[in-house]
Fold this sequence. Notes:
This protein is an all-beta fold. The chain has three domains: 33-122, Sandwich (Immunoglobulin-like), CATH 2.60.40; 135-214, Immunoglobulins (Immunoglobulin-like), CATH 2.60.40.10; 219-359, no CATH class. Helix content is 0%, strand content 42%. It has no helices and 26 strands. The strands form six sheets. Strands 16, 21, 22, 24, 25 and 26 form a six-stranded antiparallel β-sheet that branches. Strands 3, 4, 6, 7 and 8 form a five-stranded antiparallel β-sheet that branches. The protein has a five-stranded antiparallel β-sheet with strand order 18-17-19-20-23, with no helix packed on it. The chain is elongated.
Amino acid sequence: MRKWPVVALAFLSVACGESNPVLVVGGDPDGPRNVSAFYYNLGVDVTWDLSPGWNGEAFRVYGKRASDADFFFIAEVTSCAGGSCVYRDLNVLADVSYEYFVAAVDPDTGSEASSAIVGVYVPVPIPPAVPTSVAGVALDDAAYLIWSDAPASEDDFSFYRVYLIDGPDDLLLGETDSPGFIDLLAVNGSTFTYFVTSVDDQGHESGGSSLVEVTPRPDYTGELVNAYQDAPGNAGFQFQESEDAAAVVSGDDPDRHFRLESDVDGLWLVPGPGVEIYPTGQFTSALKCGVGADGDCTSWEVAPTSGYAFGDVPVDAEFTYMFRVPGFGGGLNYGAIRVTLLGQDQAGDDVMVFDWAYQIQEGNPNLSTAEGSVLP
């Protein structure tokens, strides 16, 4: 935080009702110590410490423009915390210098013991740059926001603020000095809208970034199914609204979303009743490129909204496949799997290991990022 220079000019004592301070040798009550004033975010904070002889007296704050002749009484402070006191003066103008002093007031006589005069300059406020390229990544019961760190290149940059639009209000979620933030209060199946601002070291806040919407959804890593020809009881899969529910089902389960089958041509994703699969998969390095992802991470996180079919699809390792399935609420929902491994287990049976994501908000194709990725 930048503090503008403070200049101690003289030790003063002010009688009640007088506008011009006069120099005194002593003071009863004991006056405030270490008075300072500094500019921050369109106001001036006047601070001081309690003296060793302080006996519960109230304090009066006086101020004026440096160019004025007389001081004016502007506030009375009756409570302090931890041996320190503060008064924030918001009645200030840009490009103007001000002077302040503080006086302890005897409650019986009204006599004042005053501090030194301190000065402060109020600059013309210049807000920092608005954050750009804000994107959201849907996680499991969480939302990850990321944006360009360009504002941090400015010498006076301090931190970012992340807001959630909550009805008519903007709720401040938190502050961070890095271009990323995780909202752990977000829940699966609901859409949350965010924006980001930047703040400089004088407390000036930029305008809000563009809005970004994120809809968290359940996901799971390391699921395993067998080929139906080898182990039919472990060959089916059904997207679930919670990873706590069993997703691997029998290959004959009428509610399965797909089962894995094998033949001489390889392994196939075979859709269940009423389930559609996008005919081609996309090579990816991860199911989602979220928190901690490598810079060259590639993913397919927004499902196509058309072009699906009911036919079987050949499956390859390191490919992501999209599904449109009958949801638990009666509508259509989107899901994705990314195949991490195709191989055989110790019994020689064909297996597929994969990660999956399922958007439980009906009709929403966003499985992770708000802006999505290029379709195949």
